[in-house]
Specification:
The chain is α+β, with helices and mostly antiparallel strands. The protein contains ten helices and eight strands. The longest helix is centred in the C-terminal third of the chain and has 15 residues. 38% of the residues are buried.
Length: 255
C-alpha cells in the first residue's frame, strides 16, 4: 500500500489516481502532517504559490469522474476527497451520531433536493433568505453530516475575452443521488425516529431522519457493518496510508 509520503502530484490524472489509491484524503493541510492533496502537490503546481491552478482546477476532473466524493466532510467541515467505498463508511459512521441530525433548514434543502436532484449556492441563499456566508456555512454543516456532496463543478469564463482565471460554480446533491440509493418518503423533523436498524449495511445504525433510505440491494453506499466498525476501518486506513497519524488527529478528521 502506497503511503502519502511517497506521492507527488503534478497533474489531474495523478491526483485522481492518488485519491483512488488512498481512498480518503483531505484537500488542505490536516492534523496529520503530509496527509493532504496540498502537501502531496509539487510547489510549482499549487495554486497559492504559482500561476498554475493545479488541484484547484484538477478537482473538476475528480468530481466529474463519477466515483469520487468531494465536499467539506473532513476535519470539522473542511474539503476532502474519498472513493465511494470509503465515503460509504464515513456516511455509515456520521449518520449514526446524534450530533449530526439535520436541522429545520437542512430539511428544507433536502426537500428541494428530493424534487430537483441538485441545488446551487444561489438557490440555497434564496430558499433560506440568507447571504453567501451563512449559506456557505449551511453547505459545510450538511457536508459534514454526509447529507451533501458537490455534484458538479463548472468553470466560469469572464471578460471580453471570456478568460478562465479559476472562477468556478458548483451544484450540490445528496450522496444517494450521486452514487445510488433510494430517496423515499417525506423528510422533516416530524418523521425522525430513533432506535437501531437491522439488516445488511445498517447494523447498529440509528435512523434519525426520515426520507432517505439508501440501503437497497444494489447500493454502493451499503457497507455491511456497524457504524463503529466503519469508524474503526477508516482509522485503520488512515494509519496505513499516513503512519504518523495519531488517534487524536484521526478523531479530528473523522468525528
Amino acid at each position: 500500500m502506497t503511503n502519502v509520503y511517497d506521492i507527488r502530484l503534478e497533474s489531474a490524472e495523478s491526483m485522481v489516481a492518488a485519491i483512488h489509491e488512498l481512498g480518503i484524503v483531505p484537500f488542505f493541510k490536516s492534523p496529520v502532517p503530509g496527509y493532504s492533496i496540498q502537501e502531496m502537490t509539487t510547489p510549482d503546481h499549487w495554486f497559492d504559490s504559482s500561476d498554475d491552478l493545479g488541484p484547484w482546477d484538477w478537482k473538476i476532473e475528480a468530481v466529474q469522474s463519477g466515483d469520487i466524493a468531494y465536499g467539506k466532510f473532513l476535519n470539522g467541515g473542511k474539503a476532502g476527497f474519498a472513493t465511494v467505498e470509503w465515503y460509504a463508511h464515513l456516511l455509515n459512521w456520521r449518520r449514526s451520531l446524534d450530533k449530526y441530525r439535520p436541522d429545520a433548514n437542512e430539511f428544507r434543502i433536502l426537500d428541494v433536493l428530493r424534487q430537483a436532484g441538485d441545488i446551487g449556492s444561489k438557490e440555497i441563499r434564496q430558499l433560506l433568505g440568507v447571504k453567501k456566508g451563512p449559506a456557505d456555512n449551511v453547505v459545510a454543516k450538511m457536508s459534514q453530516k454526509t447529507l451533501l456532496l458537490v455534484g458538479d463543478i463548472r468553470r466560469v469564463y469572464k471578460g471580453p475575452t471570456l478568460s478562465y482565471q479559476g472562477w468556478q460554480t458548483c451544484s450540490f446533491c445528496t450522496p444517494e443521488a450521486l452514487f445510488g440509493g433510494e430517496i423515499a418518503g417525506e423528510a422533516g423533523p416530524s418523521t425522525t425516529s430513533a432506535g437501531s436498524a437491522t439488516g445488511s449495511g445498517t447494523v447498529g445504525r440509528k435512523v434519525f431522519f426520515g426520507g432517505f433510505s439508501p440501503f437497497s440491494d444494489e447500493n454502493p453506499l451499503e457497507v455491511g457493518c456497524s457504524p463503529e466498525e466503519s469508524r474503526a476501518r477508516l482509522a485503520e486506513r488512515i494509519k496505513t496510508i499516513a503512519p504518523s497519524a495519531s488517534d487524536k488527529a484521526i478523531a479530528k478528521l473523522l468525528d
